[in-house]
Design brief:
The protein is an alpha+beta fold and about 350 residues long. The chain folds into 3 domains: about 110 residues; about 120 residues, Immunoglobulin-like (Sandwich), CATH 2.60.40; about 60 residues, no CATH class. The protein contains 6 helices and 13 strands. The longest helix is centred in the last third of the chain and has 52 residues.
């Protein structure tokens, strides 16, 4: 208990509060960066609200300021780590080893890369891939090879449900009908403006020929074979047009929004609930105090009324008592000021006489 009391005393000081804010920022940034925004929510609630309240930091306004400071400081810290991740070149990728459950178990597209990975805006970037047409099933024929480059992750068109419309989008295709040699190296050259963080995906459009036995005619349909990218976006990250600093600036606003939207909104919603519960408890205490003050009889510590013996004391004893509006002490209605705190009382009049000690 002594250790808990000393910790609460430390948190009540300026340095204690600063230390608690630093702890909140560190845990929020670490959980957001390493575990993701959803895991950052309980971390922020625990270290940004639960622990401060337990240690005696219970003023809602101060808790709100601390939460806001934690969000503002956490954004740039997390963004530093995200920028460092983005600047790491992506590896080469291959297509899925299964083309609609009919391939022979080997990728048709391999060693898909973009180079250079990081360069100034306006640089002519090269997107390369090795095409293995012989790995297609016998009834498949390569037709067109496409590369889609955009600032919207995974976009294969000029509009996306995640990015809206109007973002930079560059679709480029090349005929590979006669590329029957395996492997066949295919290159795309594309100049990209900057500063930007780009994403790309590559897909082979293949003709699928099937024989209709009843009519003895062939039907041609089309199948897509895309790169198998192991991330939620379904696209390869990069290239980067710009410097480390310009990339950091590009990512900062989105990072701040993510920190505010996920752990931030939940934190302030929980704080509103805490304020509601705190106000309700305060109203209950005030109601109990008011009820007790109106029913408590005169305390034995009150000075007896001044005056002589006789009927005056009897009349004073019969009068109803009232509570002082300032301190709640029980006083007689005709007293002009409270015997306990000296507050003036409405109604005026002289205090009843003190009963005589004779006899």
């Amino acid at each position: 208990m002594q250790r808990a009391a000393s910790l609460r005393a430390f948190v009540s000081t300026r340095y204690g509060k600063i230390a608690l804010v630093v702890l909140t920022v560190a845990t929020l940034a670490a959980s957001f960066y390493y575990l993701g925004p959803y895991f950052a929510i309980p971390t922020f609630l625990l270290f940004g609200m639960g622990l401060p309240i337990y240690l005696g930091w219970k003023i809602p306004r101060e808790l709100a300021i601390m939460g806001l400071v934690a969000i503002v400081v956490t954004g740039p810290i997390v963004n530093y780590g995200l920028t460092a991740q983005v600047m790491v070149p992506s590896p080469s990728y291959a297509s899925s080893t299964d083309v609609n459950n009919t391939s022979n178990g080997q990728p048709v597209l391999t060693n898909a890369t973009a180079s250079p990975y990081n360069a100034a805006g306006g640089t002519n970037f090269t997107f390369s891939v090795d095409l293995y047409a012989n790995r297609l099933p016998s009834n498949y024929q390569p037709d067109l090879l496409w590369v889609y480059v955009s600032t919207c992750p995974g976009a294969t068109g000029p509009s996306s449900p995640f990015c809206g419309a109007g973002y930079p989008f560059y679709p480029v295709n090349e005929s590979v009908v006669n590329d029957t040699g395996s492997p066949s190296a295919v290159d795309f050259h594309l100049a990209l403006p900057g500063p930007n963080v780009w994403w790309w995906q590559m897909g082979l459009l293949a003709d699928k020929t099937t024989l209709n036995v009843s009519t003895n005619q062939t039907n041609t349909t089309y199948e897509w074979i895309f790169l198998d990218v192991n991330n939620p976006y379904g696209a390869v990250q990069g290239p980067i047009t710009g410097t480390w600093t310009t990339t950091y600036d590009l990512l900062l606003s989105n990072t701040w929004i993510s920190v505010l939207f996920y752990p931030g909104l939940v934190f302030f919603a929980a704080l509103l609930i805490y304020v509601y519960l705190k106000n309700r408890e305060a109203k209950k205490k005030a109601l109990r105090a008011s009820t007790n003050a109106s029913t408590i009889p005169p305390t034995s510590g009150a000075p007896p009324p001044v005056g002589g013996a006789g009927s005056g004391a009897t009349d004073a004893a019969r009068r109803p008592e009232a509570a002082c509006p300032k301190c709640g002490a029980v006083v007689y209605p005709k007293e002009t000021q409270c015997w306990k705190c000296g507050a003036p009382l409405s109604g005026g009049g002289s205090p009843p006489p003190l009963p005589s000690n004779s006899g």
